[in-house]
Amino acid sequence: MASIPFTLAALATSAVPGLVVLGTRAHGEDEEYVSAVVTDGNDEFVVRIPRTQAAEIQQSAELLSLAALNEGARSVLPFAVPESLGVTRAGDSRAVVTTFIDGGQFDIESLAEDSLLIQPLAETLAAIHNLPHQVAQQGGLPIRSATDARLQATRLIDRAEATRLLPQTIQDRWKHVVETSELWDFAPAVIHGSLDASQLRVSNDSVTGVLGWSELSVGDPAADLAWLLGAGSDVFEAVLVRYAALRDQSMLTQLHTRAALYHELEIARWLLHGVESHDDSITSDAVGMLDRLVDSVGVFGTVLGAAETGEPLSEDEVVSLLEETPEVTDHLSETAAFEALDEDRMFGIDTDFIEPLRETGEDESEASDTQLTEPIDDQLTEPIDDDDLPEAIDDEDLPEPPQFENPFQK
């Protein structure tokens, strides 16, 4: 069977009419996909084949989102968005070719309140949230009202409560948030839906691109802000203030409270993953994290009181609140990843796993850039047939699933 990079390069030429591939290199950013970067000498493209049904569902949702982000929408965004160029069959699955977004990644913990990246982050969030609702409506994407967002949070809390492992104090605290109507009086906006540091590409202290658009929808803008709480209180407030100025937001207390709730509910997702996967170590870890949340109830109560009375917090109260907000890395477990995909985007596709990537023990030189002196089509002596494509494997031949590490522990 041909090597995976060359097979993906051939699939790219099949998916994109007129594409002549002159080089290929590894692209291992997401283990849920078999992927490679190919070039025609001028531009680079990403070719991806989903390994699992979950990845294929996610890819389907992202294709809808990228199509919804038409030329008009992209023109007002201060960063690049991948463009879908073509799709072709790959065994029992499919290969999707998109434009490659250049730029590096950053560690959220390396951010400081005076980092040059703070303003670009605020501008990125504001630009997404300022997109017209028609982008999602005309693209057939989910449209969620403030009531819908409130119900989603309520359902997650109810599921966590059903485990009988949720501390009563935390349960009451979360329920008080979802039952406080003033906190949910907001105007929905177009949101990315799964934004975190891993989805951003940066260069020279600017955001050059945003990836991972599978959950694009109209919803609660606070959901896109929650991950910033993992950077610390000073960073979160610095971005929030700049974001509010760009969007003319006046209800910062309510926005922050919902972001804090979403941030804490990641622990509920972690708990549910441990319970549903029967992993006692994850469950125990999540229970310990929930116990530690009890200490911040007093400060959280200050925010709720301000939201209910309509009185804004003082600067000292905001700083105190942010310092007390528990830091939880924004992470979706494999179980939560299924939950995050809206029912409107569930495509009932029965997809087998695609052949896994090479073992880590193989020669590292094979993963380096491969430059071709002739177009790849000229090097093929015969057309690629199904036998040359990654083959589906039986469940018993699958590698052991990865061991989950605590995503909330720094």
UniProtKB/TrEMBL annotation:
<protein>
    <submittedName>
        <fullName>Phosphotransferase</fullName>
    </submittedName>
</protein>
<feature type="domain" description="Aminoglycoside phosphotransferase">
    <location>
        <begin position="35"/>
        <end position="245"/>
    </location>
</feature>
<dbReference type="Pfam" id="PF01636">
    <property type="entry name" value="APH"/>
</dbReference>
<dbReference type="InterPro" id="IPR011009">
    <property type="entry name" value="Kinase-like_dom_sf"/>
</dbReference>
<dbReference type="InterPro" id="IPR002575">
    <property type="entry name" value="Aminoglycoside_PTrfase"/>
</dbReference>
<feature type="compositionally biased region" description="Acidic residues">
    <location>
        <begin position="375"/>
        <end position="399"/>
    </location>
</feature>
<keyword id="KW-0808">Transferase</keyword>
<dbReference type="GO" id="GO:0016740">
    <property type="term" value="F:transferase activity"/>
</dbReference>
<feature type="region of interest" description="Disordered">
    <location>
        <begin position="359"/>
        <end position="410"/>
    </location>
</feature>
